[in-house]
Amino acid sequence: xxxxxxxxxxxxxxxxxxxxxxxxIHKDWMLYLMFLPGLVYILLFKYAPMYGVTIAFKDFKIGxxxxxxxxxxxxxxxxxxxxxxxxxxxxxNIIISFAKLAFGFPFPIILSLMINEVRSSKxxxxxxxxxxxxxxxxxxxxxGLFYAILSPNAGALKDxxxxxxxxxxxxxxxxxxxxxxxxxVVSHVWKGAGMGTIVYLxxxxxxxxxxxxxxxxxxxxxxxxMWHITLPCIRTTIIVLLIFRVGxxxxxxxxxxxxFSNDAIISKIDIIDTYVYKLGLQERKYGISTxxxxxxxxxxxxxxxxxxxxxxxxxxxxxxx
Amino acid sequence: xxxKRHHKLGAATGGERVGQVLNGVFLGLMVLVTIYPFWHxxxxxxxxxxxxxxxxxxxxxxxxxxLSYQQLLSTRQLYICYRNSILKTLLGTGIxxxxxxxxxxxxxxxxxxxxxxxxxxxxxxxxxxxxxxxxYLLIRDLHLLDTFWVYVLPAAMSxxxxxxxRNFFQSIPPSLEESALLDGANPxxxxxxIVLPLSGPALxxxxxxxxxxxxxxxxxxxxxxxxxxxxxxxxxxxxxxAAAGAKSGTVSEMADVSAASRLTEETVKxxxxxxxxIPVLIVYPFLQKYYTKxxxxxxxxx
Lengths: 321, 302
Known about the structure:
The complex is a heterodimer of chains A (321) and B (302).
Chain A lengths: L1 H10 L5 H11 L1 H24 L22 H7 L2 H21 L1 H12 L3 H12 L6 H12 L6 H7 L16 H26 L3 H9 L4 H12 L1 H13 L6 H7 L5 H4 L2 H11 L3 H29 L7
Helix pairs in contact in A: 2-3, 4-17, 5-10, 6-10, 7-10, 13-17, 16-17
Chain B lengths: L1 H9 L3 H32 L3 H4 L14 H7 L2 H33 L6 H13 L4 H10 L17 H12 L3 H9 L4 H9 L4 H17 L2 H6 L8 H15 L17 H18 L1 H16 L3
Helix pairs in contact in B: 2-14, 5-8, 5-11, 8-11, 9-10, 11-15, 13-14
């Protein structure tokens, strides 16, 4: 079939691009029809808002068409970086993201290595089934569970601390400035550990068992096998997940922070998303809040590209793109 | 020889045995830390308010009571939110699966001209997005604010899930489709009668991914919907729990016993959390099974 069309193409003068596109569509028009809803969805809900970021460079007012709004250059960005509240949100965002990466990223790797060392398959199954549970509940429920444990009067924590001999009054950890970021990071690790663990365990399952047998015969202990076989074999998975995580660093967790926030601690955990929400949707300052959002997604894009480039430099087989 | 080797593999040195025990203890603690909060909430919700007020660890209900459930289940708003959340999850998952399959199938075919361009176009949406405000303005302009559709349409397809499904379709032997094409079947017939029936596990995994995200997501409610009749369960729960956060600036929280019932605020919260977690626990065996499989499919780089 393709031979036939090729033959015809070489015999007659090459048809114009337009007619070639039309003839392709004519031949497989049903495939294009099938693809159409997805294309419309992507254009409407993903690309139209990308056009909408031009608001960041315009003086856009409610009731105006985006096209008609006059250009103002980088005014909104200058305004944005002059605001202490934004700089505070940016700083919180970076601190929280780094802490989440530093604790949340290695934890599932360690956990999966530990689960892999368990001999009893029942115990293995129990641990796997348990640690994934928090992944399936919402951030609202996670907050509720933390509240149930940490609440100074009605929570469970005081009995646990009594076990260790502490009888004093408990601070309210969910409304304490000094504990706020810790709580955000701890709940992030607690909720996300299981998901990462599954991914790494899946990668570990794929490792050739012969490698372990050979190493064992050569006298390598469990720790050495872990370091010299397991970790190198799941390296690609680790790097791909790392690129994803680094790319998400500008997004410090809107769903989570939104529910963890209260007046007492907002200064410590206000992030770019919550800041954009307040400025844009509550104060209706569309231009400057769009500028904040654009700064966020553009930085995110740059972070992914840089991490991907480094990953490929270090190990040509890995990398996302 | 075989015996010796077996001996070597099976035996653990003294240090390794200690490692095994420590490993077991740590993982046991992990299980406890993960499961206990759920257990605590359920047991608290089943206890009598006056006894549970003192808090602490709950192994079993203290003075078993269903009063909070009776109170809660007579609240009209709970039913409204439950209905909305279930409808959102079911309809949203259905629409998402259909749209994802319709998009992924053409992209899986080498003969589909423009697949490279379209794939790149969809991939780019994973790296960059317009952000909260332009999306909000678009949804306002589409007159989707305060409608049920805002829960399902903007989230109708995830690029990540689409690529997982496309990769899965590509692993199906093309000979099956070719013979159907020769019999005169059109692409829709091939997709629905041949490809999709072979994609059961992948579709189940995607249904779990979409379903969990739809059930747990509540920002769409916060951002786009004010109508109480369209409220989602998670947002209802958030408002009940966050009420505590708002006044928790003070160190001591007095559990205020409401005059109408003998319930503490705490017991009510624990009950709402329990009620909202139950659907997840019911489908948990499926979730665990297919989610895990889906993660494995997705973790293969494609």
